[in-house]
Amino acid sequence: MRKLLATVSAALLGMAVPALAHHSVAGEYDVNKPVTIKGTVSKLEWTNPHSRIYVDVKDASGKVTTWNFELAARSALTRQGWTGKSVKIGDTVTVEGDLARSGVTGAHARTVLLADGTKVLSGANDN
Amino acid sequence: MRKLLVIGALVAFAVPLVVHAQTGAAGKDVGTVNTKKRSAVPTGPVPRLPNGHPDLNGVWVGGGPINDLEKDGGLKPGEIDSLLLPWAKELMSKRDVTLEPHNQCLPMGVPRTTPFPFRFLQNYTDKQATHLYILHEGNIHTYRQIFMDGRQHPPADELDSTWLGHSIGRWDGDTLVIDTVGFNDRWWFDRRGHPHTEQLHTIERWTRKDLGHMENVVTIDDPGAYSKPFTVRFMATWTPGDELLEYICQENNQYGVETLPGGKPAADTDNSGRK
Questions:
Q1: pLDDT (0 to 100) of residue A22
Q2: Using omega within 30 degrees of 0 as the cis cutoff, is the peptide bond preceding A49 cis?
Q3: Do the domain assignments include residue B46?
C-alpha cells in the first residue's frame, strides 16, 4: 500500500491537482503561515466532507498539544489511493500545512510524511 | 390466456429500461476509482443510444461554476456584475463566504458544480425517454430529475419553489436542452455569492462534443436580480473508470462550525476541535 501511495504521490507531483475542497481553503487557512509538525497520530477521521488526522506533539516539559489537520474529502483521497488504513493511530508523522486562521490548533495539511519516509499528499489542495 | 398475454406484454413494456451503456471507443469501465491512474481525457466519436440520440451516460466532472460564475463561465470581469440590480449588488457585497449554504451541506442549485464527479443517467422505455437523472456525489448527494416525457412545467401559480427547481428536457438535434423554473432563492451561484430570486429561469444546452467532452451552455434569466439574461459556457469531461463514491457531507463538517474564522471551538472540544 505504501508503495502504491508513493507511486501515486510521485505521479501527482508532476501534474496539476484539481480543487478538492468543499470550501475555499484560503478563507480558513493562511498560506503565508506554513507549519511543519511532527508527532504521533492520536485520532483519524476517515470522513466527508473532509478527512482529518489529529497529531499529538509533546514539548520539552511533557505537555501534549493536539493538532487538527484537515485533509481532502474521503472520496477524493480514495481516488488518490488512500484507504482508511493509510495512516494509523500511533504512527509517527510529519505534516506540512497552512495554519488555521481561527486560533484553533490546526492546519490545512498539504503533505503527510510517514515514519518510513513515504510522503503522501493530503489531496486537500484548493484553487 | 390472451388477456394474460396482453397484460404480460403491457407490464414488460411499462418497465423502464435504465440504460448505462457507455459504448465509446475507450472501452468499458474498468472498475477502479483511483482516477490518478487514468490517462488524458479520451477523444473519439460521440457514442449513441439505440434510438440515435447521443449517449450522455457516464461519470463526468466540471460543466459548471464553482468559485465564480462570471470567470468560470468564460465571461470578462464585470459582464455579469454590471447586470446586477441595485438590491442584488448590495446583497452580494455583504455576503460572507463562510456562511454560504453550500458549505453547510445544503444543495448548490443550477448550474453550479463541485470538484467532485456527477453521473448522467438517461432512462427510457422502448417507446420514449422518461427521465434524465443527474446524480451529484458532492458536496451533498443530490439528484436532479429532468422529465423527458414531453410534459410541461406546472402553471406558475402551482410551482412550489425548491432547491433544484422543476426541470423538463428535450432534444434539439444532438443537444439536450434542460429548462428549469421553480427555484427557491436560498442557494448561491458560486463562492462569490452571485444571488438570484425565485423568478430564475435556466436553460442548459448540453452537447457532447466528442467522447470525452460535453459542453454546457447556460442561459440565466432572472429579472428579479439581473437587468437582462446572460449566457455562460462550461465544459465537462468524462472520467472513464471513475464511479460515484459515498460523500456524506453532514458526517464531519467542521467548516463554519468549529473553525469559523474568528470563532471559538465548541465548549465540548479541546483546542484542536476534537471532541
A1: 60
A2: yes
A3: no
User: How many domains does chain B divide into?
Assistant: 1
What was the pLDDT predicted at B207?
A: 98
Query: Is position A46 within any domain?
Result: yes
Segments of B65-223 assigned E as strands: 118-124, 129-136, 142-147, 166-172, 175-181, 201-208, 213-221
Joined together, the cell numbers standing for residue B252 give 464531519
pLDDT digits (tens, 9 = 90+) for B77-136: 999 999 999 999 999 999 988 788 988 899 999 999 998 999 999 998 888 899 999 999
Chain B within 8 Å of A33 (Cβ-Cβ)? no
> ipTM strictly over 0.90?
no
Does the CB of B227 have a partner CB in chain A at under 8 Å? no
- Report whether pLDDT(A40) > 80: yes
The reply to whether B136 falls in a domain is yes
Q: Is residue B161 part of a domain?
A: yes
Separation of alpha carbons B84 and B87, rounded Å: 8
Domain extent at residue A83: 2-121
Cβ-Cβ contacts under 8 Å, B112 against chain A: none
Instruction: Indicate the pTM of the whole model.
Output: 0.79
**Is A127 contained in some domain?**
no
The answer to whether A67 touches A105, Cβ cutoff 8 Å, is yes
Closest alpha carbon within chain A to B40: A15
**Helix, strand, or coil here: B38?**
coil
Average the pLDDT over B230-235 and give the result.
98
**Could A105 and B272 be called an inter-chain contact, meaning their C-beta atoms sit closer than 8 Å?**
yes
A37 in a domain, yes or no?
Answer: yes
Would you say B168 and B177 are in contact if contact means Cβ atoms under 8 Å apart? no
CA–CA distance, A94 with A109 (Å, rounded to integer):
10
Partner residues linked to A127 by β-bridges? none
First-to-last C-alpha distance (Å) of chain B: 67
Question: Which residues in B lie closer than 8 A to residue A84 (C-beta atoms)?
Answer: none
Q: What is the CATH number of the domain that holds A77?
A: 2.40.50.140
User: What domain count does chain A have?
Assistant: 1
Residue A126 lies in a domain: no
Residue B257 falls within a domain, yes or no?
A: no
User: Pairing relation of β-strands B142-147 and B129-136?
Assistant: antiparallel
Q: What percentage of residues in chain B have a pLDDT greater than 70?
A: 78
Count other Cβ atoms within 10 Å, centred on residue A33: 12
Range of the domain at B175: 57-251
